[in-house]
Design a protein that fits this description.
2 helices, 37 residues, single chain
Length: 37
């Protein structure tokens, strides 16, 4: 819910996770294409 409201602290935490786990995020994004209808 905080992400939808664009809470700055939440956005920074998400970006931090994405940048520190780049390969995992890339793999999840790839797999998500096949899991979404």
């Amino acid at each position: 819910q905080r992400l939808v409201k664009a809470d700055q602290e939440t956005i920074y935490e998400v970006l931090k996770w994405l940048l520190t786990n780049k390969e995992l995020a890339k793999q999840r994004a790839y797999l998500a294409r096949f899991l979404v209808k």
